[in-house]
Amino acid sequence: MSSSETENIQPRSGYHHSKRLGVLIGGSGLIGGTMAHYFKTQTVEDIEIRAPSSKKLSIRNAEDIKTYLTRVRPDFVINSAVAALDSDAQLAFEVNYLGCVNLARACSALGIPYIHISSAATLPNGENLSEEDHLPLSPTLTHYAKSKFMAERTLRHMGKHEGLDFTIIRLAIVYGEHDHKIQGFHRLFFSIADEAMPFMITKRGVKHSYTNSNKIPYFVHHVLDHREEFTQETYHFVDKDPVDMADLILSIRSYLELNRPRELYVPYPVIKSGKYFLQWLASILNWFGISVRLPPELIFLENFYKSQTLSNQKLRQSSFVDPFPDETIYTALPKLVVYYLERWGHLNLITTFNEEFLGTFEFEDEFVNHPREILTSIHSDSISPFPEMVELRNESVRQGQNEP
Ligand SMILES: NC(=O)c1ccc[n+]([C@@H]2O[C@H](COP(=O)([O-])OP(=O)(O)OC[C@H]3O[C@@H](n4cnc5c(N)ncnc54)[C@H](OP(=O)(O)O)[C@@H]3O)[C@@H](O)[C@H]2O)c1
Fold first, then answer.
1. Cα torsion at 147, 149, 155, 160 (round to 10°)?
2. pTM (2 decimals)?
3. Which of 118, 190, 240, 392 is 20 to 30 A off residue 70, Cα-Cα?
4. How far is the CA of 31 from the centre of ligand 1 (A)?
C-alpha cells in the first residue's frame, strides 16, 4: 500500500470505542504475559486488550494478520512475539522479521501505533551503548540477532517513507516471574540452583544491563499515552546500573546457601571447546536415535565473557517516571527465588530446596497412597455447586423477571 493510499485512512483512537482496544501479540510469553496481566488488571477503565495465541493468529501468515486486525480494528498493536532462540533461519525470518513487517504494514494501513519489543542482541558488545548503536548487518550474525536487527531497520524505513507510527523498545537481559521456558537470566539462575555450574562461567569485571519485566508494561502504557514524544523513536528499557555478572552469580549462590559454583573462573577458550564438544556429542547421539537438545542460550556464551551495557540516558530524560525506582535484579532476587524454586520443585526439575519452598500438601498421603478413599470422600461432601455462585445466578434470574 502506498503512502497516498494510507493518507485517507483515519486513526480510530477514541472514535469507535469509549475505551482503547489493543492487540498484544506474544501474550503467552514472559514479557507479553506480564503486559497482558497489567492491561487486564490496571487499565480496565481505559484500555482493553486482546491477546490471541499463535494458534489463533500466527504472525507467520500475512493473511491471518490482515483478517484478524480487520475484524478487531484495534487502536494499537504491541508485538512481543519471538521465535525460539535456536529456531532455524526460516522461522526466525518469518516470525521475528516478516511477522513484524506485516504487523507494521497493517498498523500503517489502519493509521494506528505499532509498539515493537526488540533486543540488545541487535547491539555489539561494549559499554554505555546508545540507541543509535547497532551491529553491522552481516551473514555471520545469529538468526535471532539478524532478524531482530532487520526488523528494527525496516520499521525505521517505514517510519520515514510510510509515516508509520512506531516505537521500538530494546530490552537487555530480562528478569521476572513466569518465564515458563526458563530462558536467558532464568536459565543461568536455574543452572546455579541445580548446582549444574561447578565453576564460574564468566570472567571478573564483565557487566551487563538488565531489564525488569514488571516495569515494561508501565513504559508501554506511557508510550501509548504520549505518542507525540515517543513516535518513531527507539528506547533502551534497562535498569539504571549495569550488573557485574560474577557478583550476581555469587549473590545467587550465597542466597541459596550453596557451595557451587566455586570461585574459579573458566577461561573462554576452554568453555568454547566444551561447547563444541557437547554439540559434537549431541550430533553423534542423534545418529543413535537419542535426541539431545542443548540450551539455546549457548548462542550467547561469548556474552558471558564480554560486557554489554546499554545507556538509559534517553529513557531517563524522557517523560517516563520509573514506577519502582529502587527495584533491581538484587532487590527482586528474594521474590524470584521463592517463585522459581517452588515452580521448579513442583515440576520435578530440582529437588534440593523442596522442603524449604514447597508448601505442605495436605492431601499428599491420600492422593499418593489411597486415591480410592479420597475420591469417595470428595464425592460424598465436596461436589455441590458453590452456594455464593448459585446465589449470583438466582439474583440475575430475579432481575430478568423484574425487567419489563
Ligand atoms: N526474555 C529475554 O530475556 C529477552 C531479552 C531481550 C529481548 N527480549 C524480547 O522480548 C520479546 C518477548 O520475549 P519473551 O522472552 O517474552 O519470549 P517468550 O517467552 O519465548 O514468548 C514468545 C511469544 O511469542 C509468541 N509467538 C511465537 N511464534 C509466534 C507466531 N508465529 N505468531 C504469533 N505469536 C508467536 C509465543 O506464542 P505461543 O506461546 O502462542 O506460541 C509467545 O507468546 C521478544 O521480542 C524478545 O526478542 C526478550
1. -140
2. 0.87
3. 118
4. 7
Identify whether the C-beta of residue 168 lies closer than 8 Å to the C-beta of residue 234. yes
Return the ligand 1 atom nearest residue 170 CA.
7
Ligand 1 within 6 A of 25 CB? yes
Contact 238 CB / ligand 1 (< 6 Å): no
Tell me how many degrees the CA angle 10-154-32 measures, rounded to the nearest 5.
75
Q: Which of 300, 117, 309 shows the shortest CA–CA distance to 209? A: 309
Provide the angle, in degrees to the nearest 10, between the axes of the packed helices 216-225 and 30-42.
60
Atom of ligand 1 nearest to the CA of 144: 47
Are the CB atoms for 105 and 114 separated by under 8 Å? Answer: no
Collect all residues with Cβ–Cβ distance below 8 Å to 170 and sequence separation of at least 6.
118, 119, 120, 122, 123, 131, 234, 235, 236, 237, 310
The grid coordinates of residue 319 equal: 517523560
Residue 14 region by backbone torsions, left for phi larger than 0, else alpha for psi between -120 and 50, else beta: left
- Which atom of ligand 1 is nearest to 28's Cα? 43
Q: Is 31 near ligand 1, meaning CB less than 6 Å away?
A: yes
Q: Cβ(172)–Cβ(188) under 8 Å?
A: no
Question: From ligand 1's centre to the CA of 203, what distance in Å?
Answer: 30
Instruction: Place 272 in a pLDDT band, splitting at 50, 70 and 90.
Output: confident
Q: Is the CB of 82 under 6 A from ligand 1?
A: yes
The residue whose CA is least distant from atom 24 of ligand 1 is: 81
Laid out side by side, the sheet with 47-50 consists of 47-50, 20-25, 76-79, 114-119, 166-171, 233-237
Q: Which residues in 253-307 belong to E strands, given as ranges?
A: 262-265
Where do we find the cell 483512537? 13
